[in-house]
Amino acid sequence: MLRHVTAGVDATPESLAAAHWAAREALRRGTGLRLVHAPQRPAAVPRGTGAHATEGEWDVERVVAGVRAAHPGLRITCRIATGPPVTALLTAAEEAELLVLGSRGLGEAAGGLVEAADGLVEAAGGAVGEQVVARSAAPVVLVRAGEGCAGEHLPAPDGVSPEEIPEIPYRDVVLGLDISRPCDDLIAFAFSSARLRATVLRVIHAPVPSAAPAGGATARPPEAALAARLRPWREKFPTVPVVKTVAFATAADALVRASGGAALTVVGRSTGDGHPDRPHIGPVTRTVLHRARGPVAVVPHV
Hints:
Largest sheet: 10 strands, mixed
Low-confidence stretches: 43-52, 105-126
Number of strands: 10
CATH topology of the largest domain: Rossmann fold
Radius of gyration: 20 Å
Distance between the termini: 26 Å
Strand content: 15-25%
Helix content: 25-40%
CATH architecture of the largest domain: 3-Layer(aba) Sandwich
Order of helices and strands: EHEHEHEHEHEHEHEHEHE
């Protein structure tokens, strides 16, 4: 089976940003791009599209045309899915290296994920997206409207666009890491993302205060514990520069602050939490999804 990155699409600005982000990621990974649309209800279509065209087909045709124009040579396929959007996206995720969805970019004051009235990716910041993030077997990246190539790179000299000078360095990849829990898939994804971009991996760990070890033993300082956890991964990815930060703010606050200067913020979702019928995202990951300034990758791990 051919490898590919998948993006859920409709006609919203968030969807278009997600499709273009997914296209750039597919090029970085050397894979194809698959665009998936699952219309929630039939609707009128513009004249000239044919008697059998659906709203989803029309939307995807426009997205495909725009992505192909921006990324010539990229292998792009599209699928009009049937059935509930959550089911369609979860099925697509099972076949993909990565699933990319649009996000509304909720602000700090938002008390919960907002459910959209209609539309696949429009709902990705709400009920549909929350269920997909919480249940997906593949990593899911949430992208806000307006996120473009320039935002992934450091400022260009004299305002030159990164599209004109592709070698302008990427911003850092930020990883939120809880070293008290197994998370090899999470760490591997973050190191791979940094290597693909030839950039720095900034690892943030916010230790949780705990009781003193039994028997008078001395607890390992968090800086030493973090370095030990990352050592085998630094050996596996020797070309990736790593900056370690032990944050004494909350993990969510530290990650939200760091996300403002990042090409990608990577957080985890434990698949061992909760019940299959009540999927669990976790408070830190949920807060980062609400408040982060830039794309966020949520990686499932045991």
